[in-house]
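pasting for ref. prot 1 ->
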Amino acid sequence: MDNLVKVHGSGGYDSDFSDDDEQGESSERGLKRKREEEILQKPFQKGRHSKVAHRSLHSNELDREEARNRRAHLISMNAFERHKKFVGDYILYYGGQMADFKRSAAKDKTDLDVLRENHRFLWRDEDEDDMTWEKELAKKYYDKLFKEYCIADLSRYKENKFGFRWRTENEVVSGKGQFQCGNKHCEKEEGLKSWEVNFAYVEHGEKRNALVKLRLCPECSFKLNYHHKRKEVKAKTKTKRLSEENREPPQKKRNKKRKRSSSHSKKHKHKRHRYRSASSSSSEESQDKDSEAGDEAEGQSEADHWRGPAPAVEEKSREEEFDEYFEDMFL
């Protein structure tokens, strides 16, 4: 056996066809390949990992990816949802109950509660001192109300107690309180009467008075005047005014026209009248007075044309025209 080992080399696995030249060629090829890779490698290019990555590197990459996903999830939520998530995580990890995190809603106030606390029927200059945001909110709401007519609550009329408030924009558009009965629970449109009421009320511990106007139907007017009669407001129509002017005698109309004339025309007219009365007889005076008055008026009108430019006629503004139009509507 020893001879066999010596003959065949190490354990008889050697081959007679193997040469050392092949080993030299393979080593040269490997060196050439390494040189080519070094030449082709760029300066910013990282080297190839010849080994398997460590477990810590893998865990770090997973943590980074999880942090990115969690951050994107938190950014997509609003503040309240984010708060709820943090509270839920806190209870999940540290224990507790959701009731411990609920705040008390006993002191919460809505805008309506703030208006009820700070509202005033009439704002004065003294009320605008030391304005807070609650008072400014109430004052802003007060400025939006329409204060021509009131809306009344007559449910306690037998106790002589009434409630009044100003109208809102929707009520003005619908005609409630002016073309409809001003009672809160009535919508009649026929036989409306206007009443003027001295409204006495207590506001923030202070007694105040306000003169308000109402438009009520006959039934609601009876409720308003159940204890004592209120003042009824009546407006003169244009037809009545014209009829009163037509009833006046013509002498008063002439006197009004003469008063409007200038003082210089009056003096001139008085001199001419005296000169003619001295030369004429007593019988002619009674006949010529009316004719002289007409002639003098025509002479004045002709003379006034040559004394100066015609008086400028004042044109009414748009607001004045609207005031005349709504004069009968707003009593």
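and prot 2 ->
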Amino acid sequence: MHVHHSKHHASKRWLPWLLAVAIFTLVPVLHGTGLGAQLPHSTTLKQRTASKQQQFLAAPKLCRAPCKNERVPQLELVGSWPGTKNLTGQHVTLATQLSLARLDKLEAQCTAWPHPLVAAVYVPLVRGRIRSPEASEHDGIALSDARRDLKQFHKRMRQQKGACDLRLRLYSERCDSATKAALYPFNAMRNRALDMVQTEAVMQLDVDFLVSKQFSRDLGKPASWAALRQQLELTVAVVLPAFEANPELLRGGEAWNERELRTAANLTQQAVEGNKSWMVRHYKAGQVSQFAGARFPEGHKCTNYRAWAGATDFYSIHYEEGYEPYSVMLRRHVPWHDERFRGYGRDKCVGYLTMWWWGVRFGVHPRAWVVHSPHPDGPAKAVTRELDLHQELKNKFYEVREELAAGSYVPATGFPQQCLLHKQQHKCRRKGRFGFRTGST
């Protein structure tokens, strides 16, 4: 009897895990696939996440403080430069984040986007000096020098005709080693940029991407804005397909040299300035392709590029795990990013997984796109590999997936004073095998 009793309780302990796996495996199948199918707004989705979805739609500040055994970046605001206008209402703000080494990318982004742009700049400090392995001109300089450089950069952008309305903030972090300084805190910086947004709509975009001028022009047309606004009100993340100059065309599987980088940069600029007919023609010719289609096809394949090529209206798509597009959303529908994800991998994926579980639907804009601006890999990717952090990031991702299935997930951030849940209100758990959380502490 005693053995039977133990087995009974063991099976009860495993039951929630088995149910979570079954739900996560079956729901995408139940939603169906294919162009023209209904957006994932099924009764099953509503029932399983009803309470969380209501919180999510009503409270853009749904976040929590980290638990004792969790680490998030400790960022300090050390500089701020305002925009020229107090923009609210019918505008889309581009929100981005970067290191000092990517200021040239921010300049290109600002030049191509004549609308509000907010940017959060990160500088790691090692023994009181800025560590910037990508840019020797910034490596080892004082924080005051970085402030001076950004002040001059901000002034130059304000004086440039047709450029963005730029709001800029500088954040520093004290790091105990050059290795930690190279682990760029992507999600923490995305949150700092998101916190700067004043308009009702936002497009979160990495600094190495440029927005098509077709979309920029359309935003100034009342009919185009009305159509986009209607989609956004339906709790839709309006995806802009992401393209890049076809790597296979340029390098044949090898690292790009300077000539190939110039060729890619020229093709990228043409893709930004061209109309959709140009994009479709060069896509079919293989000169531009899905971003990271060879390296990480799951990241953007749900967008359905073939469908986009012939689309004349917004169309619905279905989420699959790993999807991490670039999209426009109403600010009140955008959740905070989980700042426990630091380094290279799973940082954007976990945000879109959260959106899907909380009921956000996905549609694709038929006349807009973004284009990757080519550059050598940054240090975060190499250091993540060097420290063998990929498995840890995967474990955190699986952990979030479990909590989403259980309806208990809340992103951890470094600004608990803005969160609905403080440390004492969130039930922290200790970690068990493989990084999963087990009993309460």
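The radius of gyration is 22 Å.
The mean pLDDT is 80.
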